[in-house]
Amino acid sequence: MSKGEMVAASLRDYIIENRLKPGDRLPTEGELEELYGVSRVSIRAATNALSFLGIVDAAPRRGLSVGKISMKRISQYLGFHFAVSDYPMDELISTRSVIETGGLEQLARRMAEDPNIYEQLNEINEQLRSTKSMEDWIQRDMKFHCSLVSSTGLNALAAFNELLQIFFQHFREDFPRADWNDGVAEHQQIIDALRDGDSDCAAKCLKIHIGSHSERMEHTSETSPS
């Protein structure tokens, strides 16, 4: 780790250990120099990095304070990490399954309180039924799954929708037209189960739906010429 990275890690620990909240004041750059025994350059490298993620707010003449973390920005760059890293496809599929099924119990409760959530998801699925092009299918399929997560009302979970978009980029050509009707039917099973308050059934259906990518990958590898 560079000195700047070490200071950034120490400053994060300082915020946690002192139970600081957004808006609370932090030591000045001079005090941080003395505290960590590093140069002003290293201090600024650390605070600039933390400011980018919203962890630290550095304002002229007001000094340093605890910022409000931007989960959306963090997830965007986490998504970039998944896009450029060589993760096994089955690991990406499992990650997506954890993200999407994690909020279904909450979504079922919210849907019981607000029937419009079901109607909105159902409308997206109806649009998928009439889709003709692969490009439109991918965009609407992605919209359905991102809406499924964001409709939980769990903002921290919804921030990871960026990862779902990366997933769809990896599997752009993995959903042949012959399987589109099955995909729509599986979507319907999921949202109907949620409407009926059966989040366990919805989770089971969603895992099968997402797991179909693994089955297609295995079938492709078996039929590919050696």
Biggest sheet statistics: 2 strands, antiparallel
Helix content: over 70%
Shape: elongated
- Our Rg estimate from Cα atoms comes to 22 Å
Provide a short characterization of the protein structure.
The chain is mainly alpha-helical. The protein contains twelve helices and two strands; from the N terminus they run αααββααααααααα.
What does this structure look like?
The chain has helices spanning 3-17, 29-36, 40-52, 71-84, 89-101, 104-113, 116-129, 134-150, 155-158, 161-170, 180-195, 199-223, and strands at residues 56-59, 63-66. It is mainly α. A two-stranded antiparallel ribbon has the order 1-2. β1 (56-59) and β2 form a beta hairpin. The chain starts with a helix and ends with a helix. Residues 219-226 have low confidence and may be disordered.
